[in-house]
Amino acid sequence: MISLLASASDPMSHIVDKGLHEFDFLGRPMMLSMVTMTVTAIVLVVLLRWAARSIATGPESMGNKRFVSQSAFGGVIEVMVLYLRDQMLEPVMGARLTRKYLPFLLSMFFFILALNIVGLIPFVEVQEFIYSLRGEAFEIKENRTLAIFGGAATASISVTGGMALISFVLIQVQGFRELGVKGWLEHLCGGHDLVSGSPLLYPIVLLVFVVEFFGLFVKPAALAIRLFANMVAGHTLLIVFTSFGVLAANAGLGWFGVGAITVVSAIGAMLITLLEVFVALLQAFVFMFLTAVFISLMAHEDHGNEEAHAEAAAHAHGAPAH
Amino acid sequence: MMLASANPLEFNLFPFITTMVVFGTVAVGLGIFVWPKILKGLDDRNAKILGEIAAAEAARTAAAAKQKEFEQKLQEAMEQSSRMIREAKAEAVRMGEELRARSEAELAERARRAQDEIESARRTAVAELEAHAATLAVSIASRILKREISATDQKRMVEESLAGMQGKSR
Predict the structure, then answer these.
(1) Number of domains forming the structure of chain A
(2) Which of A61, A217, A242, A285 has the fewest CB atoms found within 10 Å of its own CB?
């Protein structure tokens, strides 16, 4: 209620990451997103372990049923993993890189998805409502909350920035491992052909280097900002819709007016929530998929060789390459 | 209660580092305890499906080979039966021809034998007729002559008549 009243005048106050009311760490407030992220991570690992047990091949005594998922949740996870691996990642990264990076990319996808979904559930509002029912008066410091869990962690640039930094490190490590330092520098300069070409092309090489060098940082920054902006925008929209009733009451409308506006805004909020579920899924996918694309770009030469090998193998077997 | 206007772009180092630590831990944890199991399960299932498809394909190929072999054997059997029918027909024709030839030969032999018998009977009959005619002629002649002809005379006269008739008939 406190949050809702506050959000009516300033929606951003609901969305931004806040410090916990009475928890400080190294003299600074422990942020809600840190707790939410940690708890969500633990729950995610537990849930996925459960899913893994139901997906894993069972004992032979089960017959052919040992190859079938033993729970609906396992089935959902299985479908998602299969789709991401076979339809999305393998066509982009090739079989070798997919096998290598699939665990990391799946972890990234499900971690972001879990944080996005948790952000849609009004844990903070419920906790603050319970506090308000108890009628206790709290002196809350600036940008602090009574809640100990909840909120959209991915609506914090600090969180999405952390994820983007991990992506950045992984992409560059992959680049160094696949291309070597020389190949990595050549990649930044537009490739071997351009670097070893005519000296007349050196200005272009320099220009490409500058663009590519900034691109190194722009790509992960874009990942962070895209996820953050989508989550902030969605939650802002949701808060604005849900606060229409409060605004109407504050404006002194009668019960009928407040009721009508509340019903309409509730329906709108429900529809926006459905959209936000889709956005949560989509943004988790986009973050993971673009990381995969950037990784594969840093190994594009080898990827080409892989295709050449596949083509040669297909010819050797007398079949077309595609 | 004081709630200041918040800035969502405000960067905070704590959540930034916590994100990396928590996600790193999650990635390692999932990488060890979850994804290998799930991916192995999916690979096992994939291998099972591919194995079943390969087995079905092999069974189909074997069935096709068996069908081809069966059709070939059926064709051979049909050809063999046709050949046997042709041979049986030819044998039947040959046997029919042989039987007809044998029957014709037998009939010819019987006809020849019958003709011989007829000829023999005719000769016997002619001889008997001649003898009877001679006897009758002698009897008539004796009545005309009013005398009794002895058996010896009668025999002599008959033999003379017969000799005479045979001489005439020749």
Answers:
(1) 1
(2) A61
The domain of A271 spans: 17-58+69-301
Task: Give the minimum alpha-carbon distance from A199 to chain B in angstroms, rounded to a whole number.
Answer: 43
Q: Which of B3, B10, B23 sits opposite A111 (nearest CB)?
A: B23
Complex prediction ipTM: 0.85
Q: Chain A partners of B39 at a C-beta cutoff of 8 Å? A: 81, 102-103
With respect to residue A7, please indicate whether it lies within any of the assigned structural domains. Answer: no
B57-91 per-position pLDDT tens digit: 999 999 999 999 999 999 999 999 999 999 999 99
A168 near A174, Cβ under 8 Å?
no
pLDDT tens, residue by residue, A39-58: 999 999 999 999 999 998 88
Whether A176 is covered by a domain: the verdict is yes
Burial A214-237 (b: 16+ CB within 10 A, else e): eeeeebbbebbbbbbbbbbebbbb
When CB atoms are compared, the residue of A25, A49, A64 closest to B14 is A25
